[in-house]
Structure to design on (603 residues):
């Protein structure tokens, strides 16, 4: 999983000059009949694209820095302020008008792709205008106070290695107080309008926000950088920064955090709703459809996605029936996950370091196998780290992109709450997804492809998560699932993505309750009640987000089968991956058209 950019875009990307890949790209993108290219049209498009991306990055600087763009590292923006939100939608409309004034047929093939992606993104963004997402600024999965708290370690997207870095982070902390007050005002408006989160998820979120309120300045998590000054800082800089952080936290931030914690406990949670799904909100059914379209980049209805999920669950349970006996299990197929979760041999760890050591060994093994599958591979390094303690209880394993300036690598964050309960069966498939060749090969690579900034740092959920889930299946091609328990781990993660299609649409369209979703996860995946609850509550506040994984991967797998069938002995898996990855993140319809052009050219 990667951090979600507001309005549905995902962090992304950077070029590896590879002649075969670029030649394939040109073949894939060459239209049947090209009109005369007008350089002025291309210039107008690229100017517009840069202005569009800068508007996105200034609107949500934290998401921009999460995606590797450090230009606004001292700002947090006020995207939740109604006036700022209205200005942003006005900008989108103006950008769209300018875009449609450009004659697409006068662009070269690369710029035509940019035109199509930009048209798609603007159309998608404008579909959200009627829906007041800014009235739901905080939940247990995604909140600016927790994000900035996690930055205090210096290991995340906020660099903390120079005096300038320290002042940039302090600037963000100073802005967080006004942001919190705006969030409280928004949530009070949401209470009046019946646009509130469910009680259950906000009860889960409350301990996070209480923990952020410090008994003293020195105890604040945001004060951590002061306790970890780099050795090269002068005494004068240390004194100046100590005072800056102390004044900011004591005078501005900690009082605001206390106001937020009290508001959530005393006002918001009592007014939160007992219902589960987004369709319980005003105009919620239509709101959910817009989120589904944005997160899947398709026209599939929630009902169609629900049926796809049920079919995939049944298919994977059939695979359980075949792999179970090889693991020593002879019960019904649906019971295999629960049985595996009870086997001590699949929980072999005593401490966090043992978990990380297994991932490092797997990483070394993968580096010997990936060249047979890929021509295009990112230059940026990939690091493995443990999730910070503050967010471990509610976080999922995830990936953060490298900074474009090389100041930080791509990072696979492993969430280990209790090493003794950390299951080993899913580690191979998890690393394929979150590490390489999953998110790292896509997101780090996009930064190296010489694309316009809106494509370098933007994206969509269906391609980003769809690619990562497809990457999991490559474990079979590389011989990484030879042990039945590792193949089970892959199947179980695939089952998670299939079950998400069922419960997400079930809760937000079909009237499923939170408790139904939890029970379905326990029965289908063998999860504990606590793990099932954490998953279900994620989908309750991020409706539609979990759909992109399976819908995207199914499309990529469908396109691979199409290419294999059409090309026969001419099919080369490395060239197929060049086509899928070589031009960055695409809506699924554009990806399909691109693969079809490559197949036709390859014949």
């Amino acid at each position: 999983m990667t951090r979600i950019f507001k309005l549905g875009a995902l962090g992304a990307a950077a070029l590896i000059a590879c002649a075969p890949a670029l030649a394939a790209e040109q073949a894939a993108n060459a239209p049947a009949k090209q009109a005369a290219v007008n350089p002025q049209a291309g210039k107008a498009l690229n100017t517009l694209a840069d202005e569009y991306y800068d508007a996105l990055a200034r609107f949500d600087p934290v998401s921009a820095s999460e995606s590797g763009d450090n230009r606004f590292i001292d700002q947090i923006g006020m995207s939740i302020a109604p006036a700022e939100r209205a200005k942003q939608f006005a900008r989108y409309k103006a950008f769209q008008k300018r875009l449609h004034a450009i004659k697409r047929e006068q662009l070269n093939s690369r710029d035509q792709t940019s035109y199509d992606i930009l048209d798609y993104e603007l159309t998608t963004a404008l579909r959200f205008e009627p829906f007041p997402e800014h009235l739901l600024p905080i939940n247990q999965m995604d909140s600016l106070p927790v994000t900035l708290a996690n930055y205090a370690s210096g290991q995340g997207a906020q660099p903390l290695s120079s005096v300038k870095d320290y002042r940039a982070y302090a600037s963000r902390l100073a802005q967080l107080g006004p942001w919190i007050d705006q969030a409280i005002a928004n949530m009070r408006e949401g209470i009046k309008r019946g646009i509130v989160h469910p009680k259950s998820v906000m009860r889960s979120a409350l301990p996070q926000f209480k923990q952020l309120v410090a008994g003293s300045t020195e105890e604040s998590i945001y004060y951590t950088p002061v306790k970890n000054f780099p050795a090269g800082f002068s005494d004068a800089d240390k004194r100046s920064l100590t005072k800056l952080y102390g004044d900011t936290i004591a005078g501005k931030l900690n009082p605001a955090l206390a106001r937020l914690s009290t508001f959530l406990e005393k006002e918001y949670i009592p007014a939160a709703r007992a219902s589960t799904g987004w369709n319980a909100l005003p105009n919620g059914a239509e709101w959910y459809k817009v989120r589904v379209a944005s997160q899947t980049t398709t026209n599939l209805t929630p009902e169609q996605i629900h049926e796809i999920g049920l079919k995939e669950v049944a298919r994977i349970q059939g695979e359980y029936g075949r792999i179970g006996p090889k693991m020593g299990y002879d019960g019904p197929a649906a019971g295999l996950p629960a049985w595996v979760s009870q086997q001590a041999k699949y929980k072999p760890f005593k401490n966090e370091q043992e978990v990380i050591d297994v991932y490092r060994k797997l990483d070394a093994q993968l580096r010997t196998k990936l060249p047979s599958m890929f021509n295009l591979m990112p230059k940026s390094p990939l690091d493995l780290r443990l999730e910070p303690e503050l967010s471990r209880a509610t976080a999922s394993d995830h990936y953060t992109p490298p900074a474009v300036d090389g100041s930080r690598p791509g990072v696979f964050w492993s969430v280990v709450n209790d090493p003794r309960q950390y299951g080993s069966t899913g580690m191979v498939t998890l690393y394929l997804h979150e590490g390489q060749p999953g998110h790292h090969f896509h997101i780090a690579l996009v930064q190296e492809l010489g694309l316009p900034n809106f494509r370098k740092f933007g994206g969509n959920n269906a391609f980003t998560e769809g690619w990562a889930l497809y990457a999991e299946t490559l474990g079979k091609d590389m011989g990484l699932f030879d042990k039945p328990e590792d193949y089970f781990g892959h199947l179980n993660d695939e089952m998670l993505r299939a079950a998400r299609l069922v419960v997400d649409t079930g809760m937000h369209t079909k009237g499923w309750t939170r408790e139904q979703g939890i029970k379905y996860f326990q029965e289908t995946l063998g999860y504990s009640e606590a793990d099932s609850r954490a998953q279900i509550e994620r989908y309750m506040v991020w409706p539609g987000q979990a759909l992109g994984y399976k819908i995207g991967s199914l499309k990529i797998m469908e396109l691979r089968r199409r290419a294999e069938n059409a090309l026969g002995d001419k099919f080369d898996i490395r060239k197929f991956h060049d086509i899928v990855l070589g031009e960055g993140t695409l809506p699924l319809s554009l990806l399909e058209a691109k693969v079809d052009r490559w197949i036709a050219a390859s014949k």
Summary: The CA atoms of residues 377 and 568 lie 25 Å apart. The beta strands are 382-386, 398-400, 410-414. Residues 3-32 have pLDDT under 50 and may be disordered.
